[in-house]
Design brief:
Elements (H helix, E strand, L loop, with lengths): L1 H13 L5 H16 L2 E2 L4 E6 L6 E9 L2 E6 L10 E8 L1 H4 L5 E13 L4 E6 L7 E3 L2
Length: 135
């Protein structure tokens, strides 16, 4: 009986209307969506490449414990795999504090979005490891 169950499952999978590339893409997209919950919130962000001192300003499109999508106007200095120092600004309405809180940590650019629209970043640690800053 077990063999027939296994065979049935295998046949259903093999009979799927997608080719192998489409199946792989769909499964990858589903796994990516499930990996980390993202919060669709707009927070001000400043960041720069490690070793450079001029910050670029942006706004998060969404953010999770391990990364964020950041919209910005100036992408010319950044490339995939660049390491950055990022400061995220949480307003009092979100943090419950009296003033805006800055959280600083490191990240890596993993994707450039559109033509000069933004970047997807992966935090080097988790967001919980970011340090509070007064900048």
């Amino acid at each position: 009986m077990e063999a027939s169950l296994y065979k049935h499952r295998e046949q259903d999978y093999c009979a799927a209307p997608y080719d192998i590339r489409e199946r792989t893409q769909i499964l990858g997209e589903l796994a990516d969506r499930r990996r980390n919950v993202r919060l669709s919130r707009r927070f001000s962000v400043k960041f720069c490449k490690e070793g450079l001192y001029f910050p670029v300003e942006g706004v998060t499109e969404n953010i999770g414990s391990c990364g964020a999508l950041i919209k910005l106007n100036d992408l010319h200095a950044f490339q995939i795999r660049d390491r950055i120092i990022l400061t995220l600004f949480l307003p009092p309405s979100f943090s419950g504090q009296e003033t805006t809180i800055g959280l600083r940590g490191s990240a890596q650019i993993i994707r450039l979005v559109g033509y000069n629209e933004g970047v997807a970043v992966e935090f080097t640690g988790s967001l919980k490891q970011f340090k509070r800053t007064n900048d």
